[in-house]
Amino acid sequence: MIELVQHFPALAIGVPLAFAFLLPLLKKWRNSAVIAALAALAVTEFLALFILQDVLQNGIRIYSMGAVVPGLATPEQMAVPVRILLSIDAFSAFMGAVAATIALLAGIYSIHFIRESHSKYFSLLLLMLAGALGLVFTGDMFNMFVFFEVLSISSIGLIAFWLHRAEPVEAGFKYLAISAVASIFVLFAVGLLYGQHGVLNIAGLSRSTLLYGFAFTDIIALALLVCAFSMKAGAAPMHYWVPDAYGEAPAAVTAMLAVASLASLYALFRIAFTVFGATPLIELVAFAVIIFGVLSLFLGATMSLVQKDLKRLIAYAGISQTGFILVALGVGLAAIHNTPLQPFGAMAMEGGVFHVINHAFYEALLFLCAGAVFLRTGTKDLNELGGLARRMPFTAFFFLIGGIAIAGLPPSSAFASKILIYESVYFFNPLIAVIALVSSVLVVVPMVKAFCAIFLGPEIGKFKKVREVPGAMLFTMLVLSALVIIFGLFPGAIVETIVSPAVNALLSQSAYVGGVL
Amino acid sequence: MIAVLSQNLPFVVSALLLLIGMYALLFKSNLIKMAIGLSVMGSAVNLFLIALGYRQDSIAPIFTNAPLVGAVNAAEMAMPVPQALTLTSIVISLAVTALMLSLAVLTFRHTGTLDAEKAGRLKG
Amino acid sequence: MTEEGLSKIVRTVALLLTAPITVLGLYIIAHGHLTPGGGFQGGTVIATAIALMLVAFGSKRVKKAVGKEVLSATESLGLIAFIAIAFLGMGSTFFSNFLANAGGLLGMSIPSGANPGTINSAGTIPLMNFAVGIEVASALSLVLLLIYFSGEKEGKKGGGKK
Questions:
Q1: Which terminal Cβ of chain C has fewer Cβ within 10 Å, N or C?
Q2: Contact with chain B for residue C8, Cβ under 8 A
Q3: Exposure of A409 by Cβ count < 10 A (0-12 exposed, 13-18 middle, 19+ buried)?
Q4: What is the number of CB-based contacts under 8 A between chain B and chain C?
């Protein structure tokens, strides 16, 4: 058994890829395609959870592709690691578990949601999962770029899935333009880093910057990377693609797109903390990240007040929550070199990383509820919907839980993460904490508006025959709501077991370098 | 100034191409012109990566029929890793260009125009 | 460019050129581990043969000759061959080159440094080159066929619509 456990990181990327390549052959047999896709998603979920448990127990795990043994980072005659390494520390395993869980739930939800082209849909969904897992598990800059591209291009195919309408195609085009520009910036930065340091491995780059210091080309590369990953994550000045793409994609795809944005945030913080953590200029980057976060908080909350389309409303609220994560991790970044602020920086990072997993869960929950409403009524316009609480009681209940979570009210997990963020950011700069609180209060308003507009009120004539959604979709929403509530009832245990090791892995650059090389 | 320019000419041209591509992407409203702009930006990055790997008076990093050490036309080899990065980038930009053109054809079929401002229906 | 393709001279020359283009593409794929080239490059060269067919004959005849289903199936087969070879190396690690320097098929050991180049070397790399080459040729041909086909439908319907 110990033999196979070593290969789990590569299998976690290889199994979704293999099934994604296999599924187009099963175009004519719909049931076998769906069963094969769900089997692949379940296997990947099991592998990701096992890797998380293994890394939390045993420390950083590396996997060297194509070597004689998996653990061989630097071959005998070489001085630097030359193979493509997968290096999984606590933060990577954490993100991988989140991605695999959301993908499995999205797959189960899609059985009834998608009416045609199942093999194409599930093949692209598995490719998105393989891309996301590759992005978070890899330890090599260029491999990160390649999986970033796999993730982006497969999500284009899924956003523009309903080809017979014009809006998804337009949303897909906008997302493609942003994504292509971001990837060109990333490749420029990778080229600059390779030219300056001579290695592409993240741990190798980290060691090289610790030994030899920073030059001007490193600063240019850092600026390009921060811009590119913030573009893909939906941070505020670059957020214009988010409501279009999130609003026009099928509901389960939107949940996976949220995971893709979180994976881009992972890449941003991996670069900022592990490669560039030692430079005093990281404070400038931290301020830039905090400014992006504050803008996202404010713009997301205010723009979602005026939306009439349900999914665009939830998407703008989601931008606001991404602002929370950016502010929290930006404060952590600024506090690296600033010794009196370090415990507050660590607490802010714990809040931010905890908010990552909460954001993934309640954002997916809200989008899945919106998709359920769309499936049964055929419309997303808040002016046309109304009075569905009698017909779809479970969906209303799950939407209520999602709304409580996004507002940060007590029984939900977001309350714990937001309290951590407020308390620590207040010591850094009180104004930012006030803005965060105000946006959090502002986000309650559109959620209440949406809930009342869709579910409360008298029944509308054309929706009298609406039934509840099928059991599989209810099961996924139930699992997500249960996770939100359970994480909210036991936040201390979750922070201690999963979040703190992730934060410590992110903060200590030398532990990463020592563990990998 | 001229000396700096002549020594770093590939990098200056790469930056210029990036700016030209970005101008086409930002300021032109025809979808096909946006795709062309992205393609030009991709070429800028490929030029940058190839120029990165060049050493003075080097030959291609291929062992087959390479001149032996000590022969009359012996030279060192250019760095092979940026060339591998460039190949991957070319493949990816091909996929992106194919997707953009397919989406442009679909937009034309739905709305009858290729102008991004007239064909756009998602606002706010 | 009508649906029937171009004139008879162009059609004849295109037919004559298909074989050399395909052979050139296969040469680039097969010698990918020795000379510049490899899977993707050779695959695109083979796809240009299909593109030449499309321009010369029009999409209707090319669709009857090489259908969408055939191209989709060969694309999937290429991808599955690639990932199967990657999994076959699981004895040591994922993607490991278990045929190189092993003396069997494609396994001759070559000394490092300048050499005339033997094709019977480099292990799984030529096999993966072939898989990727078949996949890229099919995928690009399919993309060209579909865009050309939908473009011709637009041309017939729209006429001069602005």
A1: C
A2: no
A3: middle
A4: 43
Q: Residue A445's CB: how many other CB atoms inside 10 A?
A: 14
Token readout for A399 is 């939407």
With a pLDDT cut of 90, the percent of chain C lying above it is 40
Helix (H) or strand (E) holding C59: helix C59-65
Q: What is the pLDDT of residues A339-393, one digit of tens each?
A: 788 888 888 888 999 999 999 999 999 999 999 999 888 888 888 888 888 888 8
Q: Measured between alpha carbons, how far is A390 from A457 in angstroms, rounded to an integer? A: 10
Neighbouring CB atoms inside 10 A of A257's CB total 25
Please give the average per-residue pLDDT across C34-39, as a whole number. Answer: 88
E strand or H helix at A175 = helix A166-197
**What band does C102 get if pLDDT is binned at 50, 70 and 90?**
confident
At B49, list the tokens: 């990566």
Neighbours of C154 (CB within 10 A): 15
Residue type, A38: L
The yes or no reply on domain B2-58+67-118 and CATH 1.10.287.3510 is yes
What is the rounded distance in angstroms from the CA atom of residue B60 to the CA atom of residue B5?
25
| pTM for the full predicted model | 0.94
Residue with the two structure tokens 């969904």: A125
Nearest C-alpha in A relative to B18: A184
Contacts of A11 in chain C (CB under 8 A): 94
- Write the DSSP symbol of residue A86: E
Least CB-CB distance to B63: which of C36, C115, C154?
Answer: C115
Q: Hey, which residues 221-260 in chain A have their CB within 8 Å of chain B?
A: 243-244, 247-248
Q: In A, residues 60-79, which contact C (CB 8 Å cutoff)?
A: 63-70
Q: Which of A176, A187, A248 sits opposite B89 (nearest CB)?
A: A187
- DSSP-assigned letter for residue C91: G
Position of tokens 């071959």? A75
**Residue A136 burial (CB count, 10 A):** 27
Range of the domain at A397: 2-516
For residue B74, what are the contacts with CB-CB under 8 A and spacing of at least 6?
B67, B68
Q: How many helical (H) and strand (E) elements, i.e. helices and strands, does chain C have?
A: 5, 0
Residues of B in contact with C120 (CB under 8 A): none
Q: Helices C68-88 and C124-158 sit at what angle, rounded to 10 degrees?
A: 160
DSSP state of C89: G
CA dist C53 and A350 (Å) reads 60
Domain count, chain A: 1
Within a domain: C2: no
Please tell me the distance from the alpha carbon of residue C83 to that of residue C79, in angstroms, as a whole number.
Answer: 6
Q: Does residue C154 form part of some domain?
A: yes
- Examine residue C13 and state whether it is found in any structural domain, yes or no: yes
CA distance A356 to A349: 10
Token pair of A325 as six digits: 């994560």
- Please, which chains are in contact with B (at least 3 CB pairs closer than 8 A)? A, C
- Report DSSP state, residue A138: B
Domain span including residue C35: 8-109+118-158
Task: Give the count of alpha carbons within 13 A of B2, CB side only.
Answer: 0
Rounded to an integer, what distance in angstroms lies between the CA atom of residue A410 and that of residue C114? 70
Sole residue written with tokens 């245990």: A493
User: Cα–Cα distance between A204 and B103 in angstroms, integer?
Assistant: 40
Residue pair A169/B119 in contact (Cβ under 8 Å)? The answer is no
- Per-domain residue ranges of chain B: 2-58+67-118
Q: Taking a C-beta distance cutoff of 8 angstroms, is the pair A281, A387 a contact?
A: no
Which stretch of DSSP H or E encloses residue A87? strand A85-88
